[in-house]
């Protein structure tokens, strides 16, 4: 619902965030400190309130080092009614990555109530988009459609520091009228930003992080599991087979896509040409079905071990043409799976090796395809030595690929984890 305001005087206050419970700016800072943070890319917040009013019209969350500007709008009761997630993909332009809107048909509904009417919009620079409508809130049904928003409204100019009224009047954000900004200029000593504003509800969006790629391959480490009554202990790492990558172009994908390439290119990671072990990690546990007790085992992750050097950082493998700056909280890029199977394969030989694997899978006639009892298959090209190794995954979906690197930036390992099972794990503190 569009809110209309006319000739409104707006005050701007700066700090680490907005405390809705206490109705106050979190750790206020003077304008000069906010300007310094803006230039340095450090996070800060702008609280915009009508002159003399206690509650804000909007709050801006700014973190240029993370290419992020977020906008929240509030109703007269201090409840959030609108969110905009903008990304600085170009020096002078912001891309409108996500919009969300809430309507509270009952006065006693709390902030962001699951019963509130809700609409979400997701946009991507290549033109892909989607809109979700929840007439009865998150607890009811929903419909998904394409977005009816002109493409010229998908981008906004980066606001000059202190010129926030231009954001308030942007047609994408539903506020209409004339706004005149009155800067807050009182002398406030800069406050330490320990903990930033995260305890008060905001931080720059954080994409998914690698799920314990070191811990999962550390024998003896113990985890709790959401659906197991007793802690689990990581078993010794098992080398399943080895794979030759004569070109050093490692591709990771669903092997059923390889013969036709209909689902796009796989994720490709460059490693030194060579022969590398393919390893798995997992844990065993006691289970029961129909009164019979037995020992079961779950595989948590598969890795290609490139070298034994210590891994100092893990990064997400990004498909060509994708931009990590567009990822929202907990999101990731990965490879699509429709056969509950993934594979490591030398990229230059992937089409032929994929054909041989699929022939073996469908008709049993794949030459040189070797299967193991625990769901792994290996195919080797006799001419080049290039290999393909398949592994079973927990189901269909999208799986991220995590690349470990040493302090020189060289690849140490490539890991694919079973997202469902690993999502149920939590390391036990020693």
Structural write-up:
- A hairpin with a 4-residue loop joins β6 and β7 (68-74).
- Strands 2, 5, 6, 7, 8, 9, 10, 11, 12, 13 and 15 form an 11-stranded mixed sheet that branches. The chain has a 6-stranded antiparallel sheet with strand order 18-21-22-31-30-23. The chain has a 6-stranded antiparallel sheet with strand order 20-19-25-28-27-26, covered by helices on one side.
- By secondary structure, the chain is mainly beta.
- The model is unreliable at 193-199 (pLDDT under 50).
- Helix content is 8%, strand content 42%.
- It has helices at residues 31-40, 165-168, 350-363, 419-423, and strands at residues 3-4, 8-15, 17-19, 24-26, 44-50, 58-63, 68-74, 80-90, 93-103, 117-123, 129-134, 143-145, 155-157, 175-176, 179-183, 222-225, 232-233, 238-245, 249-253, 267-270, 274-289, 292-305, 313-316, 335-337, 341-346, 369-371, 377-380, 387-392, 397-399, 402-405, 411-417, 425-427.
- It is built from 4 helices and 32 strands.
- It is elongated.
- The chain has 2 domains: 3-200, no CATH class; 215-427, no CATH class.
- It starts with a strand and ends with a strand.
């Amino acid at each position: 619902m569009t809110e209309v305001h006319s000739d409104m005087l707006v005050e701007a206050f700066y700090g680490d965030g907005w405390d809705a419970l206490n109705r106050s700016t979190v750790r206020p800072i003077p304008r000069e400190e906010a300007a310094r943070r803006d230039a340095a890319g450090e996070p800060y917040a702008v609280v915009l309130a009508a002159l003399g009013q206690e509650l804000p019209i909007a709050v801006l969350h700014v973190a240029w080092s993370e290419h992020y500007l977020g906008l929240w709008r509030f109703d007269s009761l201090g409840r959030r009614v609108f969110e905009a997630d903008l990304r600085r993909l170009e020096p002078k332009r912001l891309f409108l990555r996500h919009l969300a809107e809430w309507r509270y048909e009952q006065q006693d509904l709390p902030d962001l109530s699951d019963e509130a009417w809700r609409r979400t919009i997701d946009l991507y620079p290549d033109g892909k988009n989607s809109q979700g409508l929840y007439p009865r809130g998150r607890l009811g049904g929903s419909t998904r459609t394409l977005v009816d928003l002109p493409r010229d409204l998908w981008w906004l100019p980066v606001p000059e520091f202190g010129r926030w009224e231009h954001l308030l009047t942007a047609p994408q954000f539903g506020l209409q009228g004339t706004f005149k900004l009155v800067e807050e200029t009182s002398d406030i000593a800069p406050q330490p930003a320990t903990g930033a504003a995260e305890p008060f509800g905001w931080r720059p969006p954080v994409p998914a992080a690698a799920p314990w790629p070191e811990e999962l391959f550390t024998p003896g480490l113990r985890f709790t599991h959401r659906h197991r009554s007793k802690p689990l202990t990581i078993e010794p790492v098992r080398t399943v087979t080895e794979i030759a990558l004569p070109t050093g172009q490692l591709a990771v994908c669903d092997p059923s896509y390889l013969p036709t390439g209909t689902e796009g290119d796989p994720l490709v990671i460059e490693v030194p040409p060579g022969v590398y072990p393919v390893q798995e990690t997992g844990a065993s546990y006691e289970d029961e079905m129909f009164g019979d007790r037995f020992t079961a085992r779950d595989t948590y992750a598969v890795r290609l071990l490139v070298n034994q050097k210590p891994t100092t950082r893990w990064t997400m493998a990004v498909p060509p043409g994708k931009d990590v700056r567009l990822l929202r909280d907990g999101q990731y890029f990965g490879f699509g799976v429709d056969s509950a199977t993934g594979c490591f394969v030398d990229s230059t030989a992937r089409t032929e090796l994929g054909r041989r694997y699929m022939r073996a899978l469908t008709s049993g006639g794949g030459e040189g395809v070797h299967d193991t009892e625990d769901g792994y298959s290996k195919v080797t090209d006799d001419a080049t030595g290039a290999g393909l190794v398949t592994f079973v995954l927990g189901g269909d979906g999208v799986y991220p690929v995590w690349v470990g690197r040493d302090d020189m930036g060289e690849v140490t390992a490539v890991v694919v984890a079973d997202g469902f099972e690993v999502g149920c794990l939590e390391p036990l503190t020693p």
